[in-house]
Design goal:
Layout: E1 2-3, E2 7-17, E3 20-30, E4 36-47, H1 48-54, E5 62-75, E6 81-96, E7 108-112, E8 115-124, E9 127-136, E10 139-147, E11 153-163, H2 164-167, E12 169-170, E13 173-187, E14 193-205, E15 208-220, E16 223-231, E17 237-244, E18 252-262, H3 263-268, E19 284-293, E20 301-313, E21 316-327
Antiparallel strand pairs: 1-2, 2-3, 3-4, 4-5, 5-6, 6-7, 6-8, 8-9, 9-10, 10-11, 11-13, 12-13, 13-14, 14-15, 15-16, 16-17, 17-18, 18-19, 19-20, 20-21
């Protein structure tokens, strides 16, 4: 280091802390009121979960390993104040269902291997804020958050073009498609809560291909709820459902109500399934459908009842009729 009567300059410092390794090519501290400083930092395998605990953020649901760099400036006086910019690679990001429990398959809501993040942050007297932009899952995720001593961690999330197909699974339930998402995340003394709106294209869940879906999603206390779901058709198809990550009986269940829908569209839901019969073609139907699974090892169960009209089936034209159907891959 080098020091004179006005400032001190430290070069090539290496810090080994609980949350990872930090190298500081250069830190400058001025000898005047509030001790202003500037620093350049390089970090390797920095564990943000442990860092958040040091900042007294309770029950943080994120486990993130970060490699990258940051530029900081602020004051080191009686009241520490820091602001900075970050450019980093997230080598591992896991969202935990229960923040105070160890990482495990049953405690992992989602797991993402890598992403690129840039952003800004600030911290002073037990409160802070941040805004980041992350290239992730073939899309972009902007997160803006703040916390202090009196309110829980609050994060606003805005995602575009996020690939659920690349994500693969939410816990152990397969999802697919690409979605835009706006959500609010809060973390307090209880479990993390997420409330948001999504617009999903080419959507899939388990063995069912849904296509375009819009709706509301809520995650709290191990329950992922889908509300006010809408699928375009001759008349809008309505749906609601849930995914229970610690179920007593049913892992997932969706109720679908179609007052007037294309027969061809409805049977496209099952295009990945080997149906034991040839689906009808043309015409329209009204139906109530229940999709559920996870309560045993036999896969998804589809139960449907309704009416059809104007269909072609087994080389015959059908004016109309009623139907009842139960489908399982291993029925």
């Amino acid at each position: 280091f080098v020091a004179d009567g006005k400032k001190a300059e430290f070069n090539d410092l290496l810090f080994q802390i609980e949350s990872g390794k930090i190298k500081a090519p250069k830190i400058t501290i001025e000898f005047k009121e509030k001790s202003p400083f500037q620093a350049e930092l390089l970090f390797n395998d920095l564990d943000l979960n442990k860092l958040f605990k040091r900042l007294k953020i309770k029950r943080n649901p994120l486990y993130v390993l970060v490699n990258g760099q940051a530029k900081l400036k602020g004051n080191l006086g009686d009241s520490i104040a820091v602001e900075g910019e970050i450019d980093s690679q997230l080598d591992k990001m896991i969202v935990l269902a229960h923040p105070n429990e160890p990482i495990s398959p049953t405690n992992t809501v989602i797991s993402i291997e890598s992403s690129k993040t840039v952003g800004k942050f600030s911290y002073q007297e037990g409160q802070g804020s941040f805004k980041t932009q992350t290239k992730i899952l073939d899309g972009t995720l902007v997160a803006e958050g703040q916390w202090n001593k009196s309110i829980p961690l609050q994060i606003n999330v805005d995602g575009t073009g996020l690939s659920l197909t690349k994500l693969g699974k939410i816990q152990d339930l397969p999802f697919g498609g690409a979605t835009d998402l706006k959500a609010q995340v809060s973390v307090d003394e209880g479990e993390p809560t997420v409330v948001g709106q999504f617009d999903l294209k080419n959507g899939e869940i388990a063995d069912v291909t849904l296509g375009s879906v819009k709706g509301k999603v809520v995650y709290q206390n191990d329950l992922l709820s889908f509300e006010s779901l809408e699928l375009p058709s001759l008349e809008m198809i309505k749906s609601e459902g849930f995914v229970d990550f610690k179920p007593k009986d049913t892992r997932y269940k969706f109720n679908i109500s179609a007052k007037r829908a294309s027969v061809d569209q409805v049977f496209q839901f099952f295009k990945k399934n080997a149906l034991e019969f040839t689906p009808p073609q043309g015409g329209e139907l009204s139906t109530n459908v229940i999709l559920e699974g996870g309560h045993d090892s036999k896969g998804i169960q589809v139960t449907a009842r309704g009416n059809v009209r104007g269909i072609q089936w087994y080389k015959e034209n059908w004016l109309g009729g009623s139907f009842s159907l139960v489908y399982r891959p291993e029925f």
